[in-house]
Every structure is written in structure tokens, then in C-alpha cells.
Q: What sequence folds into this?
């Protein structure tokens, strides 16, 4: 019930005295009211701004935070007030709701912030007053649309393909997003070029050329150079057919694809050619055949795959269908009315062009759209009067739905702009996210390293412990606890992928140098990320520089363990049993020993790797740097 | 484009029939109806919007389109404390609630009906609200000011039992002529039973109010003259223990 009703309840109860003399039965006892009779003023401090209100005001809505006992959680004994660490400007509106019973939405506020405040104070948005409800709903819908777009853009098909995609999926992606691969891009431009060629050929073949010798009268170019045009047409149609069949093959849902607009356009574009091939050179049928050639112009619609603006226009028209329908309907009504009037007005005059009402339709249309060809002109005075009324009203009728269509177009266009901007910023954003993630991983690994080194060398830890907040300390401790619980360790992306990459077939381990081992890694296409591994190997060979990151900590080389199937927990297991390395080898079993070859191609200090614990430390230290060299340690089968 | 529901658009011919306001879709409010004469007169430049005599001390009631400020301020708090048996604090609380609901300072009958319809949603309480309004409207001007409100409440809640019975009698006596006729009682009874609504157990028979009135008259009408006077009423009620005991039931509502 509304606040006002609560205020009137005592009065209604009091007025029930009027029933007492009439009552057939005895009245029930009234409920015991333990609440304090006197009203008191409550102080509510919202981030420094003090609000005061009667307790009764807040009690009006007992299912909200302020009206229930939930506010006691926020009561500050020292200052005898309720303290909320929220926005005081928004709180003003919330408090006004209690006072007046109507919730208003402040237009200058962000809709999400407002929603959050409402959620915090336990107020459902449905009670926003009528005055502000529409604005609220519109903003909310706009926000949701924007969020949906963002998530769509996040999952955009620009993201790299899952590694195990079939040829069909790759093909489809190449068609949908040409800029993902160069082949697709090339194909995209080639088809665009051929569309243009086809359309131009269609246009040019009707241009009159000079007739060949011995004939009079102009001939359209199409007939003069019949063969050339035919060849061009054939080539274009072949390309289009090939493209269509490829798309059909690659489409994830063939039925859906065949029903889509673009596919229909494709079919319509190429059908006339085939029908023309099939049909005999019959005089009767060639008339229809000529009509079919008109459909060739539909090839120009194929450009909509290449042009976003065209797509937007099409989408706008589709979404404005109701306005366009209304425009059409009102125009039709007006045309019929005016045509009838003009016909009867001009009926008397001889040699009048207004021979029938349908004939007057033409005049009405031409006049209402202010074209005014002048082929039909009223001659009577009445006709002229009505003709002028017709032209004036035409301007009005056409001008009315147009702004709606324009605003629709503008909205959709801006949405698209936003989507494009999102895509462009996507890469930057992803890179930033990756870096942030790496930062936290590195920070954690740094913490662990300090933890282990802390016993040995207190000097260096002092350097590294600075600049880490209590929050980070506790967070890292938590991660460390998790590691201990599961007996696995966190690593960062690069090291993990290197582990993946250097898994070999296993037996043919050699004592070759690091370079050849890397080549060996390249030869092995097994493993989780062979392609990536190859790429990374190439990268590593390319920039084998060392960056010394922090302090005086030396950089050691990572260990590469060549095994068959290396899950990421290899290190821990290696750490545990350095001598007897029974890795998760699957079918092959071999005991391996670590042979370290500490010869980096760059200027890291030569350091033979000490056995077990230090390799761990070495790995950790290495993972801090962004670019560093690796050495491979081969485990040879004994 | 804000998608409006389709059914709003072309199928609505109400604005053509001029029964609804085309902008808001609401039925045209009655107060805007004016006589043809009034409309014509308004067009004349010499016509001043003659406000029908404003009921209250300040403000004026004006024609449609202009601001109407009806504002009634009660006399001072101290006066009211003297007139009623409420304490200052109680009056303050009362007035705050009252003013919040009716910023103009007066309650009209429609508000009463709205309030009661919210408290008794199952039945039709408009009749009873009307009678109650008449009982509260001691000045018979169609509006209940805060003073009337407070005075009546003071009688109901803080008055002696005789005062309360007097008030109840006043409620039943629709034409305020000092005696309750059978017709008046029947009306009151109907209005009360209407508030119950249709879905009751046992279901209300058509004759139930009539029977109840008969019982009432049997009890109250001592000289069997078909009307109940105030003396008869008081006498009977004071003899009835049940009524006397229940009279203090609602004293704690405020």
C-alpha cells in the first residue's frame, strides 16, 4: 500500500467506532502496539551530508533498507546517526521517495548508477512515478542494448579461431570476416571487382555504338561486340557461381543460409544466365528471356556485402517498415481522393487528359510529389483549385513520416559506428588486459621467489618487498595456499606454452645444441600448440636478448623438458623427484636425467644449472622478464 | 524510434469521438466541462475569470488551464489543543500526516472514497465513505479541514462514551434531524454490507441488511414509533454491556 494509506489507517480505525453500536458480535481485541508513540527525528549521514527525517517517514516502506531493521547495521554509535558511504545526491531522491511516495529519476544521472543505488536501498524501480517512468525505461533499454552490443563485440568473430576447427568452419569465417586472412581478403576484392565489371558491362552493352559497315542505324554495343560481352558475362557468372557454392558448402546451417537475403540475391543474380543458356533461341520465349536479363541488375545488390552503409540502409528500411507502410497508405488514400475529385472537376472539358480516374492517378502522384511534369494539366477553375490543394497536401503527407525514418537511420548508423569503434579498441583493450594479467602473475611469482629466497638473502628481499600493499601480500599468500593444497604451481603464459612446445616425440632426444633442439621441437608437430610453438621458436630466435628486470637478480635460463605429454604440473613433479623422472609419459616410459646445456645464444652469464630447487627458482625468476632467452635441457633416455 | 505498441496507433478512434484526451489517452476530466455560455463569455475580453466563491481563506479556484491553489490553513496549534483533547505532540503528528496527504489543507469526498477503497478493496465502500464524510463535514461545505478532522477524531478517541455514542448517532442520522428512521438505517446498513463485497462466508443474502436493521430497531426503538431518537439510542447503548465495553477499543490508534 502507498504511504498515504498508512497515514490514514489510524483515522479509518478510529472511524470504526461507528460500527460498534451495530455490531452483532463482540469486537476482537486490538493488536498491541509496542512501538514508541512519539515520533523521533533520525539522522542519516550519507558521505558527509547529513539528512534528517522523521522515523515515521522511513517506516512507511518497511520492505526497504531504510524502513526495516536493516538500517541498524549502518548505525554509528559514536555519532548517533546512520552512516552510508554512498552518493548523497542520489540519496536525496531516495529520501524524497519516502517523503512524497513518488520516486523520480534524475535525468542527468547515469542509469546504471541509479539502478545500483535503488538496489542498495531495496527499492524496486517499478515504483518510479509516471512522470519519470518513460525516460527511465528508455534509458534503461538503451543501456541494455549497448551492453548487448559490447558483449557481442567481445565475442566478435575477430577472435582467433579455436584450434581444432574444420576446414568448413575456417572457410565460413573467411567469408564472413575477410580481414582475418589474406586469402579471404583477396577473394573479397576479386568478387567486388567482378561485381563492378558485371554491372558496368550490363550498362555499357546498351549504349549505342557505331554500326558496322553496311548498316544504317545505331546498334547497341551489346550486339556489336556480342562475343566479348558474352565472355565477360560468363566469367562473372562463373565467379559468382563458384562463390555461391563455396558459401553454401561452408555455411554452418545450409537451410538458414539459403533463406537469407544475400543468398537470394546471389541466386537471382546468376539465374538469368543459366536460364538463358538452357532456353532455346526461340522467338517467342526470347521475349521473356529479355525480361530475365533485367534481373542481372540485381548483381549490384551483391555490393552490400562489401559496403556497410548499404547494409545499414537496408536495415533501416526494414525497421521503418511501419512508417513506410503508413506513408504508403496515406499517400494511396490521398491519391484516390484527389484523383476522383480532379476527374469529376475536369469531366466537362473537351479534350481533357483526365480520361478516367486511374488516368488521374498519374496526375495526382506527379502533383503530390511536386514533380509537375505538365503532361496533364487541369483547365477548369475548380480543377486548378483542387490541383493546388493537392500539391500542398502532398508536401505535408510526405514530410510527416520522413523525420521518423531519418531518426531511425541515424540511430542505427551511430550504433554501427560504435560497434566499429569497439572493434578497433578491442585489440588495445585485450592487450591491456593481458598485460594486467601478466602483471599479477609476475607479482605473485615474485612474491613466491622472495618467500623462498627470503631465508637465504635478506638483503635482496628488502629491495623487492617494497611497493606491495597489504592486500597484495594477503592475496599472494592465498594463491600460495592454493598451490600447496593442490600441489601444483602457477606459471605464466609464456613458460607454459614453451613447455607445451618443447614436448617432443620423446625418443629421439639428442645432445645437440640449443638451436638444433629448437629445430627438433619444430619438427615435432605433436603437442598442444604446435603452430604456436613454431611461431614462438621463431620469435625467440629472432630476439634473443636478455632484459634484466629488477634489482640484481640474475637471469637464469628456463629448463625445457622434452617429454611426450607434459601437463603443466611437470615442474612440481620434476621438482619433487629430480632423479627419477617418471613423467606422465603415456605409452612410452623412460627414465630421464637432466642434462643441462647452459649455452645461451646471448650474453647471459654462463651458469651451470644446479639441480632441483634452483631450477625452480630459475624458472620463477625468468618468468618475470618479458623477453628472455631459453635454453633447452634435454632429458635423454638412458 | 521508440516502439509504441501497435494497438495504440491506428485502431484508436477514441480521439475522434472526442471522449478521450488525445495527448494522454485519459478520459476528459469532468471539471473541464463548461457550459457553452461560459465558453462564449470567456472569449470576450471583458470577462474576468470569475471564481466561484472560494471556499477558503486564501487562494482561488480558477478555470481549466490556470493554476488552482486552494490552500487552507488551520488556526493555531494552541487553539486546537484547547478545542480537542489531543496533546500538542499528537496534533503535530496528526497534522504532518494530514498535510502530507492533502497539501492543500482540506480533504474532499473523493479522497475519502479513495482511502476507503484501498482499505476495503473487496467491496464497494463508496457509500459508506460518503456517509462518513457527511459525519466529518461539520460545516457542510463539502470539504473537511484539519480542524474538523481533529475535532472529530478527538471526540472519537478521547471523548467520553456519551460523546462517542453521540458521534455514532450523528453518523447514522443522515439528514441530521435528530432521529434515525428505518430508511436511514437501511441505507447505512447497506453501505456497511457493501464493504464486505460478494465473497463472504456465509454469503450475504439480499435480506441480511434488512434483518439487521430490524434487529437494531427492535433493540433501540423503545416506544416503537419507527424512529430512534438520541435518548432512546443512548439509553439502550448504556444498558448494553457489550457496547459499553467495546467503546474503548480504538482509543489507542493515535
A:
Amino acid at each position: 500500500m502507498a504511504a498515504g494509506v498508512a497515514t490514514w489507517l489510524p483515522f479509518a480505525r478510529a472511524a470504526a467506532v461507528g460500527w460498534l453500536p451495530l455490531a452483532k458480535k463482540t469486537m476482537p481485541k486490538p493488536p498491541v502496539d509496542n512501538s514508541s508513540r512519539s515520533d523521533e527525528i533520525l539522522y542519516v549521514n550519507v558521505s558527509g551530508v547529513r539528512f534528517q527525517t522523521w522515523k515515521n517517514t522511513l517506516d512507511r516502506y518497511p520492505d526497504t533498507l531504510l524502513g526495516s531493521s536493516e538500517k541498524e547495521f549502518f548505525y554509528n554509535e559514536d555519532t548517533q546517526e546512520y552512516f552510508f558511504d554512498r552518493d548523497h545526491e542520489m540519496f536525496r531522491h531516495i529520501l524524497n521517495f519516502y517523503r512524497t511516495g513518488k520516486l523520480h529519476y534524475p535525468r542527468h544521472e547515469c542509469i546504471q548508477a541509479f539502478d545500483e543505488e535503488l538496489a542498495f536501498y531495496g527499492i524496486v524501480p517499478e515504483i518510479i512515478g509516471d512522470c519519470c517512468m518513460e525516460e527511465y525505461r528508455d534509458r534503461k533499454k538503451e543501456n541494455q542494448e549497448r551492453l548487448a552490443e559490447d558483449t557481442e563485440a567481445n565475442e566478435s568473430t575477430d577472435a582467433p579461431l579455436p584450434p581444432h576447427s574444420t576446414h568448413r568452419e575456417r572457410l565460413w569465417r573467411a567469408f564472413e570476416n575477410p580481414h582475418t586472412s589474406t586469402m579471404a581478403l583477396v577473394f573479397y576484392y576479386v568478387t567486388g571487382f567482378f561485381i563492378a565489371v558485371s554491372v558496368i558491362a550490363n550498362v555499357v552493352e546498351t549504349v549505342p555504338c557505331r554500326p558496322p559497315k553496311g548498316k544504317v542505324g545505331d546498334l547497341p554495343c551489346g550486339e556489336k561486340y556480342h562475343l566479348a560481352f558474352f565472355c565477360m558475362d560468363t566469367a562473372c557468372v562463373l565467379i559468382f557461381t563458384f562463390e555461391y557454392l563455396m558459401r553454401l558448402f561452408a555455411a554452418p546451417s545450409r537451410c538458414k543460409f539459403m533463406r537469407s537475403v544475400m543468398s537470394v540475391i546471389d541466386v537471382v543474380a546468376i539465374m538469368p544466365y543459366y536460364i538463358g543458356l538452357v532456353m532455346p533461341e526461340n522467338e517467342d520465349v526470347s521475349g521473356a528471356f529479355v525480361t530475365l536479363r533485367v534481373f542481372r541488375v540485381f548483381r549490384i545488390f551483391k555490393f552490400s556485402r562489401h559496403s556497410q552503409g548499404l547494409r545499414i540502409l537496408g536495415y533501416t528500411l526494414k525497421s521503418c517498415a511501419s512508417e513506410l507502410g503508413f506513408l504508403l497508405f496515406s499517400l494511396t488514400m490521398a491519391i484516390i481522393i484527389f484523383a476522383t475529385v480532379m476527374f469529376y472537376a475536369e469531366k466537362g472539358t473537351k479534350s481533357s487528359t483526365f480520361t478516367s480516374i486511374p488516368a488521374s492517378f498519374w496526375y495526382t502522384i506527379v502533383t503530390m510529389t511536386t514533380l509537375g511534369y505538365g503532361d496533364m494539366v487541369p483547365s477548369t477553375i475548380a480543377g486548378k483549385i483542387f490541383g493546388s490543394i493537392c500539391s500542398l497536401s502532398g508536401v505535408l503527407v510526405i514530410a510527416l513520416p520522413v523525420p521518423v525514418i531519418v531518426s531511425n537511420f541515424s540511430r542505427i548508423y551511430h550504433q554501427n559506428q560504435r560497434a566499429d569503434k569497439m572493434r578497433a579498441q578491442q585489440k588495445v583493450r585485450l592487450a591491456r588486459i593481458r598485460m594486467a594479467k601478466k602483471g599479477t602473475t609476475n607479482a605473485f611469482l615474485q612474491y613466491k621467489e622472495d618467500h623462498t629466497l627470503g631465508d637465504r638473502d635478506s638483503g635482496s628481499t628488502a629491495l623487492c618487498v617494497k611497493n606491495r600493499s597489504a592486500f597484495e601480500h594477503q592475496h599472494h599468500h592465498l594463491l600460495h595456499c592454493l598451490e600447496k593444497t593442490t600441489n601444483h604451481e602457477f606459471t605464466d603464459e609464456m613458460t607454459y606454452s614453451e613447455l607445451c612446445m618443447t614436448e617432443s616425440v620423446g625418443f629421439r632426444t639428442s645432445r645437440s645444441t640449443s638451436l638444433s633442439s629448437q629445430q627438433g621441437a619444430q619438427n615435432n608437430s605433436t603437442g598442444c600448440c604446435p603452430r604456436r610453438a613454431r611461431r614462438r621458436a621463431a620469435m625467440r630466435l629472432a630476439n634473443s636478448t636478455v632484459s634484466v628486470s629488477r634489482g640484481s637478480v640474475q637471469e637464469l635460463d628456463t629448463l625445457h623438458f622434452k617429454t611426450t605429454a607434459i601437463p603443466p604440473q611437470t615442474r612440481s613433479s620434476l621438482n619433487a623427484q629430480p632423479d627419477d623422472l617418471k613423467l606422465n609419459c603415456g605409452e612410452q616410459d623412460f627414465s630421464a636425467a637432466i642434462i643441462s646445456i647452459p649455452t645461451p645464444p646471448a650474453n647471459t652469464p654462463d651458469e651451470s644449472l644446479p639441480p632441483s630447487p634452483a631450477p625452480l627458482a630459475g624458472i620463477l625468476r625468468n618468468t618475470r622478464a618479458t623477453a628472455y632467452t631459453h635454453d633447452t635441457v634435454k632429458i635423454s633416455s638412458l | 524510434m521508440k516502439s509504441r505498441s501497435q494497438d495504440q496507433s491506428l485502431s484508436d478512434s477514441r480521439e475522434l469521438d472526442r471522449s478521450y484526451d488525445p495527448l494522454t489517452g485519459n478520459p476528459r476530466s469532468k471539471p473541464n466541462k463548461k457550459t457553452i455560455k461560459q465558453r462564449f463569455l470567456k472569449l470576450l475580453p471583458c470577462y474576468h475569470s470569475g471564481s466561484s466563491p472560494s471556499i477558503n481563506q486564501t487562494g482561488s479556484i480558477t478555470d481549466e488551464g490556470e493554476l488552482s491553489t486552494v490552500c487552507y490553513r488551520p488556526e493555531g496549534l494552541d487553539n486546537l489543543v484547547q478545542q480537542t483533547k489531543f496533546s500538542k505532540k499528537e496534533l503535530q503528528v496528526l497534522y504532518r500526516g494530514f498535510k502530507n496527504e492533502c497539501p492543500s489543507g482540506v480533504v474532499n469526498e473523493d479522497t475519502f472514497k479513495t482511502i476507503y477503497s484501498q482499505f476495503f478493496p473487496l467491496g464497494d465502500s463508496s457509500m459508506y465513505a460518503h456517509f462518513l464524510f457527511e459525519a466529518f463535514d461539520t460545516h457542510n461545505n463539502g470539504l473537511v479541514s484539519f480542524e474538523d478532522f481533529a475535532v472529530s477524531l478527538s471526540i472519537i478517541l478521547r471523548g467520553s462514551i456519551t460523546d462517542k455514542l453521540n458521534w455514532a448517532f450523528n453518523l447514522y442520522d443522515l439528514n441530521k434531524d435528530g432521529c434515525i428512521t428505518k430508511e436511514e438505517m437501511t441505507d447505512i446498513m447497506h453501505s456497511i454490507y457493501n464493504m464486505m463485497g460478494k465473497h463472504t462466508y456465509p454469503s450475504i443474502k439480499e435480506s441480511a441488511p434488512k434483518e439487521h436493521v430490524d434487529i437494531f430497531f427492535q433493540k433501540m426503538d423503545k416506544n416503537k414509533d419507527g424512529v430512534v431518537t438520541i435518548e432512546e439510542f443512548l439509553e439502550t447503548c448504556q444498558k448494553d454491556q457489550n457496547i459499553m465495553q467495546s467503546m474503548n477499543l480504538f482509543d489507542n490508534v493515535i
